[in-house]
Amino acid sequence: MPHTLRRLDGRALLVDPAPVAMVWNEPGRPHDALAVPGLTLGPGDALIEVELATVCGSDLHTVRGDRSAETPLVLGHEAVGRVVAAGERAVRSDGTRLELGDRVVWSVTASCGSCDRCARGLPQKCRTLAKYGHARIVRGWELSGGFATHVQLREGTAIVPVGEALPASVAAPASCATATAVAALDAAAGRVPLAGATVVVAGAGMVGLSVAALADDVGATVVVSDPDPGRRAFALRFGAVAVADPSAPTESDASLRGVLDRLSRSGVDAPLVAVEASGSPAAVRQAIDAVDVGGVVVLVGSVFPGPDVAISPESLIRRLVTVQGVHNYAPHHLEEAVAALHRLRRTRPFDEFVGATFSLAELDTAIEAAASGAHVRVGIAPQRRRHA
């Protein structure tokens, strides 16, 4: 059913039918539907009607209780949608005015732009940070996550148009997985030229596979390590020249060491870059051990509590190895992610990431499907009716 918007006094809006957000409270409890008929848009805010949201691994970590979260909250931070209302100062990430009807993705975070961290180029760690799909709902900002019919974007959010040609299943994950992959390779490129380098990617989830495609696109030789044979096969379609099984014995030809030794004998240089995208402590250890002298290890997967990883400071020092953490991203990474998806979607199967798609009312079923591991991503289409 189409929504109608009526402006009341000042910046107040009345939406009919009322937007609905799915509220999560605690592990094991189903989501509750919350109707939000009225809202107030700030001068730099925008109201987005969600076309498609996708279930990220961090949503699953929260629902399982693997990571702490202030509740109640509206989960979901990977989404694409259309602008249906905008404040007078609402702008796209390039500074141009946001227009009604723009089809957009948006950053995970909203930042002030003026604190010391924003000034240092770390807006994702702003002193007054707000995070979509992660923040406790408060009166006046109930539409704060992607698992809803609408999201209220706050001033300081990077809003990037995606046009009409990019499929929703490709566009939605850009605001987390793809942009994080861009940020990871940007961090590596600050230490090592990627063109011609050998890059090891640990973890063939969506971030890892996106890293593989992006690294291959700039001329790197990519090796992907993942224990799942199906995901290893998928990695070959995203630009990997070889895949390894991290659970194989070290002396096995299928292990990461065995694969790298084989590539070395054929003239491939030792890795100078490793991106760890799984969060497995063993994979972190393997990534650090894999890089050659002067290499860089970028850690992006360990975003939930886990055991510590023992490292040898002497080994890092003697090999001149840099270990860098990347968490979320800056606005320009999201812009680059959207550009890369437009460029690569016809040569790499980004459209196959999203498997089953559910209505908003079926959110709990969708999360169960995502947790099964049968799909890289599961979709939520808020404007769609429940399955018959």
UniProtKB/TrEMBL annotation:
Its EC number is 1.1.1.1. Residues 42-159 form the Alcohol dehydrogenase-like N-terminal domain. Residues 207-341 form the Alcohol dehydrogenase-like C-terminal domain. InterPro entries: ADH-like_C, ADH-like_N, ADH_phosphonate_catab-assoc, ADH_Zn_CS, GroES-like_sf, NAD(P)-bd_dom_sf. Its cofactor is Zn(2+). GO terms for molecular function: alcohol dehydrogenase (NAD+) activity; zinc ion binding. The keyword Coiled coil does not apply. Gene3D superfamilies: Medium-chain alcohol dehydrogenases, catalytic domain, NAD(P)-binding Rossmann-like Domain. It is an enzyme of class 1 (oxidoreductase). Keywords: Metal-binding, NAD, Oxidoreductase, Zinc. Coiled coil: none annotated. GO terms for cellular component: cytoplasm. Belongs to the zinc-containing alcohol dehydrogenase family. This is alcohol dehydrogenase. It comes from Agromyces protaetiae.
